[in-house]
Amino acid sequence: MSSTIGEKIKISVFGESHGKAIGVVVDGLPTGMKINMDKVLHEMKRRAPGNDKTATPRKEADFPEILSGVVDNVLTGAPLCAIIHNNNTKSKDYSDIKRCPRPGHSDYPAYVKYNGFNDIAGGGHFSGRITAPIVFAGAVCKQLLEEKGIKVTAHINSIGNVYDEEFNPCNIDDETIDRLLNSSFPLIDESKEESMRKVVADASADKDSVGGTIECGVVGVKAGIGEPMFDGIEGRIAKAVFGIPAMKGIEFGKGFDLAEMRGSESNDNFRYDENGNVYTKTNNCGGILGGITNGMPIVFKVAVKPTPSIAQKQETINLETKENDILEIKGRHDPCIVLRAVPVIEAITAITILDLLS
Amino acid sequence: MSSTIGEKIKISVFGESHGKAIGVVVDGLPTGMKINMDKVLHEMKRRAPGNDKTATPRKEADFPEILSGVVDNVLTGAPLCAIIHNNNTKSKDYSDIKRCPRPGHSDYPAYVKYNGFNDIAGGGHFSGRITAPIVFAGAVCKQLLEEKGIKVTAHINSIGNVYDEEFNPCNIDDETIDRLLNSSFPLIDESKEESMRKVVADASADKDSVGGTIECGVVGVKAGIGEPMFDGIEGRIAKAVFGIPAMKGIEFGKGFDLAEMRGSESNDNFRYDENGNVYTKTNNCGGILGGITNGMPIVFKVAVKPTPSIAQKQETINLETKENDILEIKGRHDPCIVLRAVPVIEAITAITILDLLS
Amino acid sequence: MSSTIGEKIKISVFGESHGKAIGVVVDGLPTGMKINMDKVLHEMKRRAPGNDKTATPRKEADFPEILSGVVDNVLTGAPLCAIIHNNNTKSKDYSDIKRCPRPGHSDYPAYVKYNGFNDIAGGGHFSGRITAPIVFAGAVCKQLLEEKGIKVTAHINSIGNVYDEEFNPCNIDDETIDRLLNSSFPLIDESKEESMRKVVADASADKDSVGGTIECGVVGVKAGIGEPMFDGIEGRIAKAVFGIPAMKGIEFGKGFDLAEMRGSESNDNFRYDENGNVYTKTNNCGGILGGITNGMPIVFKVAVKPTPSIAQKQETINLETKENDILEIKGRHDPCIVLRAVPVIEAITAITILDLLS
Amino acid sequence: MSSTIGEKIKISVFGESHGKAIGVVVDGLPTGMKINMDKVLHEMKRRAPGNDKTATPRKEADFPEILSGVVDNVLTGAPLCAIIHNNNTKSKDYSDIKRCPRPGHSDYPAYVKYNGFNDIAGGGHFSGRITAPIVFAGAVCKQLLEEKGIKVTAHINSIGNVYDEEFNPCNIDDETIDRLLNSSFPLIDESKEESMRKVVADASADKDSVGGTIECGVVGVKAGIGEPMFDGIEGRIAKAVFGIPAMKGIEFGKGFDLAEMRGSESNDNFRYDENGNVYTKTNNCGGILGGITNGMPIVFKVAVKPTPSIAQKQETINLETKENDILEIKGRHDPCIVLRAVPVIEAITAITILDLLS
């Protein structure tokens, strides 16, 4: 129940970090499009570890094997299933974290919920690795959206206290989108890369980690899409985004900044352009009013918490002795997952938008 | 499809601001509890207009008539339906806003989506008035939660740039909860009331409005409740909250502040208390890890945008002439809806939590 | 959860036989159509009691009051809610059936499920009366379907051992549909009315009741509608139909007769007609293959059990004394509900088909 | 959307007859049970082809590979995914049936729905082969149900016009259940095997096929399980069963026979047994009243149409020439699928019942 989302396009994610394979079933896709596997692999590489110093140097061969739903990579309309084999999963000893739940991780609530039977190795089903099949599904949905003239793009909005510029919420142009897609460190203002990398390197040097924010934009969705109340676009996107590990906040348009504004400032005034098309001069609402698109770009930001796995010793409990204890997490972990989360946020957004339009 | 939410406890909201009646059907409630109507009416009064200067002086007799689901106010297990008759709905002339969509409102996207057939009077189904039946449903759910030892409470976290204190996220005590419930202006630090009121009064004097934030806490939910990934508690609450008009952001625990933290600072360390119960010294995660409760209070904040209806002249389009135009909204409107939204956030949260536990 | 069905068109039914009102919320309807209330009332009269000798002589003024979702009876796109007030509900004494569950009724399983708190008066939420709002919702959906050239019609297929002719499954013509709609006793072969009435009268004279079957046809649905596997049309219709009290079986096309056929006999061969349209010479599959329409009429039959309320003394248990007991049900009850169920089956089918097409 | 079913236990089926693999994701299972793989393989062998003369002599090595959701075959609570590799799928030439849709198959409606892009080889996602992963999922659910004292069993109720005896609906004993589970031709009255086999052999000799019926029983479900109206047990089971290829009818308890009965005959009278437990002397309702269990065995029958693939020449259309044509289906096909469908009906029922109880 938990790992499934969507109405018309329904995805069901499965797998654990150190199991045989992880994967996804995507049900409800339209027929006839040939999947561009190069583009899919490009998206997966953006998420994969080992590609950047801010991320873990672990290598994962995230090559998706499509089991169903295609003939010669053309979508047939039947459920699309792809799996990614887990290599290199000879589990080291996880008995310490089985005993001592890692602070900031789901270990303890999962221990209670699953009566201790959950797979702890590598985080099991809660691992960030589970986002790889989501990126696969998102890459396919992105291609289907492009056929409708819709593009989904995201960038690092901040790492620690270093902030990128924001999108121009009224106009996210193709050049920007293409540049971000092909960047190894997607920023609006590329001059911020160095200071962001320093924040990560400093944290890493301190056996610590750091959080950040991601801004995501969707262009090309016409006005009038969505539903009022509980099936509004904000709610749909939020539910999907909070399905991604480490996300702790979401805001649409100016979001929390709206709370300090006055109405005369926050209201986006409608105007006709020279071609008789409706637009708004500002886009403080992030393209959504009453849960429904107004035709402007959909824009939102998400908060990514610092990687909870840090190399410092941490206080925690010992579930065996029932006493307080100290835990030292072994292994290599991303000091910052914001970079790798960028394509994941794009992916889950693309899936959600395609579902909305189906 | 849009106005329904929930899995085991399902609510379906109906009605328009100026129709015959608004109401709600709540399906899936347990049996046997006698609804305390005094408590229900108290909750509804907290939301009702005309009770405070920050709100509109319109009077609404928000008295719910229960049509089904009870015998002598005891829940029978059949769907509970309550309606609130709309009095005083002799519509004034809405032809101007039918022609000229109000900035910041759903008028324009709704016009596109519904081909102009949507009921525009008073905002129709998009009106904030539609939250009255949600408060009814929430008041019943709150009583059912209290039987399980669970309490939901909220306060004004900010209006404009004036901020209340935050909850102690590790311990929201009964005294605070009771005080907030019975306060006409619920604040942790009551000394902030005057400056907050001034912010609202200033905006009102300028024919303007102002936004704010609300903080909500839930105490008494055990560890291990919720699901991983797409059915996590954050996603469930977020989807429900974005069903409430004017909400533009949500963050759990420290939320966006986590993005500037390091892992060593944001991780909440687990400890045993003297009775062998697990707790965390801090609660930066807002009581949720991996989508599942850890037994600490669930804490989140929402961003409320300024009331879009302001008395100033605003630029907008004219859907008849297809030219740019100027709109002046008539009638009285809340210069700030934060106060009235407090019980609504509590209500939708209570409904969501009860659904999760059912 | 129980009283809600549908994906895009979602209905939520509420009310008890002797409560204040029964009603329905229909969410997801398109905009712009003006509801023809004469047609709605005609459908409701077909279901209402007191119109025929086979039915109970109780009078019910089943007049639906629309609370929301319309302006001047034109659909706005907001949830449509209609209620029917229960008059004449001064409950007689139900203590005997509270004590002694009626055989064939839900009294006993409901007693267990709801811990005795369910409303027993008149059957409560399990009463056949709850189908009145379904007929209202169905009447609206029928009008929306007619705009798409789709008609839903049904007739009494049998009462006891007297059988009507079946539809010509390859061609259900408008004349037949109109005649059935306006008939007080809808039959293909009207000569069967007398013997059917005699079966009912005989049962009634014996303080007994009798069952029957209903055949339903849907014309005008194009080929290619529906989904494979668990969202196939048979499954969708079946789930909806079993939501109607007293339905115990459903078969599509030749249904159970197919089980005795050979493939060469049961297969419907495809052919082109003179205009190049695809048809089948026979329609043993009831218009559905692999869960998807093939363009022929959708045809199915349902089994209606005899009214469980009979005036004879019956053996049952006494939940107070925990001993076996004898129950004599008072009041007047339909000796046969097949006639009144005909418009209900049409209604729930219309709702389901409109949902499929939305 | 189509290949997913369930509320708390959600299954998502994927794969095509001649694709790389078929499989299933089962989300929402409880933790801690060790899957007995011998029992799973026994169930899968019951469904597999090549085991009986009534079935196709094709050999399939239906060995499920579990990708996720277990550690050492113990359920972890994460989604359980199992796949079955398709060997031997070097597709012969399917161009004839691509051109000429097979009567009685989904080829034509699928062609329309999927614009010709659906995978036709071996029936693609519509193939009966897709039931193999359902049997896997059902085998796991059966083991979980047994821990609750619940058993699901089925037998061949008829093939052609030869009928087995029915279950004693008031008492399906363990001996019968065990015998049926281990029988290569499950019948209550084993003396019917010979004449049933003759019906199949005769059809086969005539290049034809034959249908039948299956009766299924569930014992051990307590009274009070299920929901009224649209979430009743009949509707839930029916929706699941119609997800299985070739099913065209379902009836609960006496089903269509009830339509010819009188109420005095059909009503099941409640009684206390010597231990104070409630039972009914008859079980005409199939254990379900008002959508809710009454504590007696749940009993239902399904109608299985004759295998549509027959070796005789058949009339059909040619989608290329747009003219009428003649098709001769090559390859070997089951002359009767009733035997192999028995464990599939058990499986889908077990999944549905476990979902209801979760």
TrEMBL record, chains A, B, C, D:
Keywords carried by this UniProt record: Amino-acid biosynthesis, Aromatic amino acid biosynthesis, FAD, Flavoprotein, FMN, Lyase, NADP
Needed co-factor(s): FMNH2
Catalytically driven reaction(s): 5-O-(1-carboxyvinyl)-3-phosphoshikimate = chorismate + phosphate
Note describing how the cofactor binds: Reduced FMN (FMNH(2)).
Record-level GO cellular component terms: cytosol
Binding site for FMN: 125-127, 290, 305-309, 332
EC number assigned by the record: 4.2.3.5
Pathway: Metabolic intermediate biosynthesis; chorismate biosynthesis; chorismate from D-erythrose 4-phosphate and phosphoenolpyruvate: step 7/7
Matching SUPFAM superfamilies: Chorismate synthase, AroC (SSF103263)
Tagged with keyword Lyase: yes
Residues noted as binding NADP(+) in the record, renumbered to the chain: 47, 53
GO BP term, example: aromatic amino acid family biosynthetic process
GO molecular function, one term: FMN binding
Function: This reaction introduces a second double bond into the aromatic ring system.
HAMAP family per the UniProt record, alphabetical: Chorismate_synth (MF_00300)
Family, as annotated: Belongs to the chorismate synthase family.
Subunit structure: Homotetramer.
The name this protein goes by in its record: Chorismate synthase
